[in-house]
Amino acid sequence: MTKIKDRVFIRSIVLFSVFTLFFGYFSFKIIKIQYFSPELKQTNQPATPTVENRLRGDILSTDGELLGGDFPKYDILVDFKIDAFAKRNATVDTTGKILPEKVRDRQMLDVYRVLSRALAKFVGEKPANEYFDILYNYRLKADRASDTDSFLRTAAIASRINIFQHDSIFGALKTMPFFYRRSIRYAAGIYREDRFERIYPYGNLAHSTLGVLKGDGSKISLSGIENLCDDELKQGNHVISTIDVRMQDICETILRNSISLHGEMFTSGTVVIMDVPTGDIKAMANFGQFSDTRYRNRTDVMNNAIHAAIDPGSTFKTVSLMLALETGKVKISDEINYDRGTVMENGKRRWENVTDIATVEAGKKDITTVMRQSLNIGTAKFVHQAFGYDWKSFRKAILKTGILDSLGLTDAKTSVRLDNKNDMFQVSHGYQVNLTPLHILTFYNAIANRGAMMKPRIVRGTVDKSGDTKLEKPVLLRKICSTATADSLAKLLSDITRSGTRYGISGKTGTAQIYLSNSRGYTTGEQTGRDLVSFCGYFPFDKPRYSCIVVLYSSMLKKEELGRILASNYAVPVFRSIADAINALSPQTRLPETFATRLPDFKNTSSDNIRTIGMELNQPYALPDGKWMQVTIDTAERQPVFSKMEIGNNPVPDVRGMGLRDAVYILENAGFRTSYSGTGKVIAQSRTETSRTVRLELK
Fold first, then answer.
1. CA angle 502, 507, 509 (to 5 degrees)
2. Same-domain pairing of 13 and 95
3. Is 225 part of a structural domain of the chain?
4. Bridging pattern class, strands 59-60 and 238-241
């Protein structure tokens, strides 16, 4: 008996062990298939990527204003051909409409009614009955369609709705059947698809500088900052640009108005503002297209400031004079005999193939006179005094300044054609040299900076996903000349400008014919051509803070008109208007007595933003309780005063006095759409009784 029990016990142990092994084996296989199978790993993922995985980082202005950013948008779609919607045993009434008879069909009609009311309330493009008719008619078509009519499977009921509208609409559907597909594609009837739109709140402001972003994320065409910082932006990091929104607006407005004022005389223009001590580009404005195909190397946005490398003309004379002074063979007080070495040919004065268009009185002329009258022969003679006929040394000196180097923002092909002594004297006054406006400005900025050439930059730093800010330091490229030479040139530029402003402008005009690639010369067979006029300089002359270049490109001119469009009549007034406007708004350049009459323009904003500003200025502000702050100015104490701001919600939040970003945030979270005009802060808001769109006016 004991032996029988032992055998039974042993058999039980063996059988239990076998079952345990099989159970363990099958459990292992199930876990492996469920969690590690490559075939199922893909299906376990959500059908649509999350917002966080697809968002591109923002581009910010130097003071934190949003210049460009991704905003999530959603489409609501309905699938009418899944089993849950399939029509069975339908009857037709006298109107020809199919009447559902099954319980699930009655439930779906209830879903249609709830969805229609939610769309009407939160999207507002149509009343509820129209949305219902659309749903019903699509349902009718889908029921009658064959299985091969795949194009009738789905219908987009609402497009480009925001996150608030999305949550509100699907919140209304949560208690209804078949209301939302989860992670598996085509598993339910009503679902969403995500999209992301690149929004530029200031419209076309700085458009060519910011660049463009096209496509759905898989096929992207980039330019500007979008291209320069593509890797950072794709990781979701924010990019802090050097652009000042106020300066950018000033430059674009004045440039556009000035070109429009002269009718068809000019086809396009460029303005760039640079911060003298740092090289930061505060504004970069382009209006119109430079139409010569030789320089059109961007298919989406043409930024003439950094891509149009052409003959600069007389603004290059400052480079030539600086190199002559640096040899020690020319002093700022030197004179030349304007007649010496010249011969008369066809009624024009010539010297080493250099000409001056205007008739100039012969005699002794110093450097100041040569520069003020922009004399080509005079400049060539000073270069000859410094270098003789040693064109190789002159070319080497030009290259040593770095004025032809890539500046990190452009791939334009800069060049200098200097292969003999005659080339030497053509180059001296700005021909046979290809430079972009940014290259010329970088040189003049170095003169204002006492010879220190700063690397121009359009990006100050980045902010990563954790909120950590990384700011880059300004980069000194090189010392282009001695401090004494820079100071002498600065005084000379101030003397020849005689701007008449209280703060003082220093600079040099430039006029040049534009090389035409289609005719391989400066004129066409019909003896017509194009000119550019420019002015490059800085202000205030005694303590330079900003440098600026203005370039205007003419339309096609007749031969007798070439050279008669003067920079002093067209480019200088643009520069002067921009400098006046920037001086009026900038405490750094304003005269002391002017500064006392004006305070910075504050906007109503969140308490978090104000605390951040206080930390940046090392001036912590005492704030009352509340999320939103109204900011006023105590003129006697010259200090901002903060009070709790009641936004309200009857019928819409009051966002007057706020910046655009805060205003849009508040209104969209309250269920409204927004449109706007102008820049600055909100001065008025309005909407019709039936509309969910709030119109904002900014100034």
1. 125
2. no
3. no
4. parallel
- Beta carbons of 314 and 374 less than 8 angstroms apart: yes
Q: How far apart are CA 163 and CA 378, in angstroms?
A: 68
Instruction: Please give the backbone phi and psi of residue 521, each rounded to the nearest 5 degrees, phi first.
Output: -170, -175
Residues 519 and 552 in one domain: yes
Name the E strands within 260-342. 266-275, 281-287, 335-337
Q: Which of 257, 265, 308 is nearest to 287 (CA)?
A: 257
CA angle 92, 96, 98 (to 5 degrees): 45
Pairing of strands 557-558, 528-529: antiparallel
Domain around 655 = 605-698
Q: Distance (Å, rounded) from C-alpha 124 to C-alpha 687?
A: 13
Classify residue 616 as exposed, middle or buried by CB count within 10 Å of its CB (0-12, 13-18, 19+).
exposed
* Separation in Å, CA 689 to CA 5, 588, 652: 91, 47, 11
- CA distance linking residue 447 with residue 468, whole number of Å: 36
Distance of alpha carbon 334 from alpha carbon 317, whole angstroms: 16
Strands 693-698, 673-677: pairing is: parallel
Residues 114, 9 share a domain:
no
Residue 265, judged by CB atoms within 10 A of its CB (0-12, 13-18, 19+), counts as middle
Give residues with Cβ within 8 angstroms of 590, minimum separation 6.
Answer: 503, 583, 584, 598
- In whole angstroms, how large is the CA radius of gyration of the chain? 35
Spatial CB neighbours of 591, under 8 Å, sequence gap ≥ 6: 502, 503
Distance CA 307, CA 47 (A): 43
Task: For residues 195 and 217, give the distance between their C-alpha atoms in angstroms, rounded to a whole number.
Answer: 10
β-strand partners of 336: 365
In the chain, the number of structural domains is 4
Pair 648, 543 in one domain: no
Do both 187 and 38 map to the same domain?
A: no
Give dist(CA 74, CA 182) in Å, integer.
Answer: 15
Provide the token pair at 638: 């010259």
| 514 & 647 share domain | no
Question: Which residue, of 554, 570, 593, is where some domain finishes?
Answer: 593
3-state secondary structure of 115: helix
CB of 471 closer than 8 Å to CB of 461: yes
Bridge pairing between strands 266-275 and 546-554: antiparallel
Residue pair 241/61 in contact (Cβ under 8 Å)? The answer is yes
* CATH code of 567's domain: 3.40.710.10
What pLDDT, on the 0 to 100 scale, is given for residue 345? 62
On whether both 7 and 95 belong to a single domain, the answer is no
- Count, residues in the chain: 699
- The answer to whether the Cα torsion of 284, 288, 292, 295 is positive or negative is positive
Show the low-confidence residues of the chain (pLDDT under 50): 33-35, 37-53, 83-101, 151, 180-188, 216-219, 291-300, 589-599
Residue 228 lies in a domain: no
pLDDT at 18: 66
- Distant-in-sequence contacts of 677-686, Cβ < 8 A, 24+ apart: 679/202, 679/205, 679/245, 679/249, 680/601, 681/601, 681/603, 681/604, 681/657, 682/655, 682/656, 682/657, 682/658, 683/656, 684/656, 685/652, 685/654, 685/655, 685/656
Please report whether residue 237 resides in a domain. no
Q: Are residues 687 and 557 in the same domain?
A: no
- Which residue, 536, 567, 593, sits at the end of a domain? 593
Q: Answer whether residue 150 is part of any domain.
A: yes
**CATH number of residue 174's parent domain:** 3.90.1310
Return the pLDDT at 549.
98
